[in-house]
Specification:
Elements: H1 2-15, E1 20-24, H2 27-37, E2 45-49, H3 56-61, E3 66-70, H4 81-87, E4 92-98, H5 107-111, E5 117-120, E6 128-129, E7 132-133, E8 140-144, E9 157-161, H6 164-175, H7 181-198, H8 203-211
Parallel strand pairs: 2-3, 2-4, 4-5, 5-8
Antiparallel strand pairs: 1-9, 6-7, 8-9
Helix pairs in contact: 2-6
Bound molecules: pyridoxal-5'-phosphate (PLP).
């Protein structure tokens, strides 16, 4: 299995135009690993999109990292260079920008701001700007392989980076994790139940109950 994962990582990296890719548990896992590998700690600031997956923010805020929202553009709902620049401070350690619904944000412009850019490519595998794949512009990128994402692999995520030192730090963190078949099996089973539920006729009334808000 290790050889298969390594082959997948190499293919993924080549497709996304970066030298390094690490298969991880989820897009969220990739984000946490990137932040840790960048040495971002409590009290540091990260500029985040004012509109993104809500669950991402407590992962960072819970570590004491100060989240500074950058407003989104009314047309693309992505952050802009101007809105990110307005959110920068001397304590800013990184900018997290999402390519919402697969539409790239102004990555080239954001890279010029002089702060490490983390690209959230959960919606955007295969999207490109002037022929260059998103995920290859910033210091590192996160991809999601969840069942409800554009590139679904029944769960999982990928951390991509062009920074060899950052990739090595991530691999060292991954090597320190306990390994076992059961957590992966459990996740697969839960995903299977979730998928079966979402695709069943029971889901519509259930979703109305959970997300309807009256
Ligand atoms: C789904 C998603 C993530 C995280 O992916 P998971 O694999 O579910 O952790 C990150 N950012 C955005 C914008 C997403 O939609």
């Amino acid at each position: 299995a290790a050889a298969e994962v390594a082959a997948f990582e190499d293919e993924f990296a080549a497709a996304m135009g970066v030298p390094h890719a690490c298969a991880v548990a989820s897009g969220r896992d990739a984000l946490c690993l990137i932040v840790a590998a960048l040495g971002i700690v409590a009290g540091d600031e990260i500029v985040v999109p004012a509109y993104t997956l809500g669950e991402l923010l407590p992962l960072l805020g819970g570590r004491g990292i100060v989240l500074v929202p950058a407003d989104v553009d009314g047309d693309s709902y992505n952050v802009s260079v101007a809105s990110v620049r307005a959110a920068l401070s001397p304590r800013t350690r990184a900018v997290l920008a999402v390519h919402l619904l697969g539409a790239p944000c102004d990555v080239a412009g954001l890279c010029q701001l002089g702060v490490p850019l983390i690209e959230d490519c959960a919606h955007a595998p295969g999207a490109s700007v002037a022929g260059r794949p998103v995920g290859s512009f910033g210091v590192a990128a996160l991809f999601s392989l969840e069942a409800n994402k554009a590139l679904a692999a029944f769960g999982g995520g990928v951390l991509a980076t062009r920074d060899a030192a950052l990739a090595a730090r991530v691999r060292a963190m991954l090597a320190g994790r306990p390994r076992g078949e059961w957590p992966a099996m459990k996740k697969m089973l839960l995903k299977w139940v979730e998928e079966a539920l979402v695709r069943s006729p029971m889901y519509a009334p259930l979703a109305r109950l959970m997300f309807g808000g009256g």
